[in-house]
Amino acid sequence: xxxxxxxxxxxxxxxxxxxxxxxxxxxxxxxxxxxxxxxxxxxxxxxxxxxxxxxxxxxxxxxxxxxxxxxxxxxxxxxxxxxxxxxxxxxxxxxxxxxxxxxxxxxxxxxxxxxx
Length: 116
Known about the structure:
Layout: H1 3-21, H2 26-33, H3 37-46, H4 49-58, H5 62-78, H6 89-107
Helix pairs in contact: 1-2, 1-4, 2-3, 5-6
């Protein structure tokens, strides 16, 4: 087996894991693994990883979905340039709603900015 194929066989399971985790874009996965975006695209569509990922998200509880959304929003804010890493008013409202959805039912209280 050519060396290139062996390397690709080793990288494909890693790409699948990253894809199904849902926190990486195809470009980010390709860069992380040192393969082309086209390779990642092909693997995703030939192996139905996009459908598997969608099914995983359907199996999550509402609290888990809210947690994922909150983490993604926080990552997007953190990725901004220094000095701009603050949520917009709409993002702040969304964060508050998600926090309430995640933690509100446990405490019996609604989180408010004045209490954070």
